């Protein structure tokens, strides 16, 4: 989706690299420099927290219901497609249940 109310992705794109940095630091084993290593992990964690805070602010500031017509149409089409797929799945499931029920009925009759 694009338009004047598009989500500024740069606030979110930085999160994964920050998390990877933390994971890499945690997996490193620098026993002789344990204090310095902990400091690096702490700094990286604080940076991630700050970026998460900024991303949350962006999300909280998003206007609700102010999508342009093209974006609304895109969302509606997507939802209609999902609805149709779910209907198809339910119909298929219902047919399976019906066929299983008729098989079960036949088996009961054969046993009697």
From TrEMBL:
Give the main localization category. nucleus
What is one GO biological process annotated to this record?
A: regulation of transcription by RNA polymerase II
Molecular function GO terms recorded: transcription coregulator activity
UniProt subcellular location: Nucleus
Q: Which GO terms describe its cellular component?
A: mediator complex
UniProt KW keywords:
Activator, Nucleus, Transcription, Transcription regulation
- The signal sequence is none
Q: What does this protein do?
A: Component of the Mediator complex, a coactivator involved in the regulated transcription of nearly all RNA polymerase II-dependent genes. Mediator functions as a bridge to convey information from gene-specific regulatory proteins to the basal RNA polymerase II transcription machinery. Mediator is recruited to promoters by direct interactions with regulatory proteins and serves as a scaffold for the assembly of a functional preinitiation complex with RNA polymerase II and the general transcription factors.
Its family remark reads: Belongs to the Mediator complex subunit 9 family.
**Assembly with partners or alone:** Component of the Mediator complex.
Protein name per Swiss-Prot or TrEMBL: Mediator of RNA polymerase II transcription subunit 9
The gene coding this protein: MED9
């Amino acid at each position: 989706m694009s338009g004047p109310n598009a989500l500024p992705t740069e606030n979110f794109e930085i999160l994964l690299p920050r998390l990877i940095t933390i994971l890499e630091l945690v997996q490193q084993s620098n026993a002789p420099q344990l204090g310095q290593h902990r400091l690096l992990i702490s700094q990286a964690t604080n940076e991630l927290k700050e970026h998460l805070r900024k991303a949350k602010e962006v999300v909280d500031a998003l206007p609700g219901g102010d999508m342009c017509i093209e974006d609304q149409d895109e969302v509606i089409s997507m939802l209609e497609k999902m609805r149709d797929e779910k209907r198809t799945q339910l119909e298929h499931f219902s047919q399976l249940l019906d066929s299983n029920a008729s098989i079960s009925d036949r088996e009961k009759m054969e046993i009697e």
